[in-house]
Design goal:
Order of helices and strands: HHHHH
Protein name: Tetratricopeptide repeat protein
Organism: Streptomyces aurantiacus
Strand content: under 5%
Keywords: Membrane, Transmembrane, Transmembrane helix
Distance between the termini: 34 Å
Transmembrane segments: 7-27, 33-55
Structural class: mainly alpha
Largest sheet: none
Length: 150
């Protein structure tokens, strides 16, 4: 729940920031010189890119949460079996061990979105965020019946 609240607050702050930047871009364009119009247009492009990025990330999170809820209803969410340090961080060897099992599971059933979902969690636990995101995107595509790149 804390992650959802943090995400909502950060998204709201970004929207306010995009609004402020957008008004500055409009003010520059209204000034009317070639230089200020050029800068104004450039300044307006940045919030558009930011809004697109925020929208795509929000869609990703919603889809991943939908898959998590479905997997939870099936009783297929992975159990947290990771060892932790006294500070609460995940033990690297433990994460690697679980990752090896999840990878083998995914190699045995490459068309199953459930195994890709669990692999994404294992990647995340192993602190490989980029691969975790790609594995989750793969799981979402498989679940939705969309074409999947190899």
């Amino acid at each position: 729940m804390t992650a959802k609240i943090t995400y909502a607050v950060a998204a709201a702050a970004l929207v306010v920031y995009f609004g402020l930047v957008g008004t500055r871009g409009v003010m520059l364009i209204q000034h009317g010189t070639l230089l200020t119009v050029t800068f104004g247009v450039a300044v307006l492009i940045l919030p558009l890119i930011g809004i697109w990025f925020l929208w795509k990330n929000t869609q990703f999170v919603q889809r991943a949460n939908r898959l998590a809820a479905e997997l939870d209803a099936e009783g297929g969410l992975p159990v947290d079996e990771l060892k932790r340090t006294p500070a609460g961080r995940i033990d690297r060897d433990s994460a690697d061990e679980v990752f090896a099992r999840r990878k083998a599971e995914t190699e045995d059933a490459p068309g199953d979105w459930r195994s890709w979902f669990r692999l994404a969690i294992a990647y995340h636990d192993a602190r490989d965020t980029a691969r975790a995101r790609r594995a989750m995107q793969h799981a979402i595509a498989l679940h939705d019946g969309k074409p999947v790149r190899a």
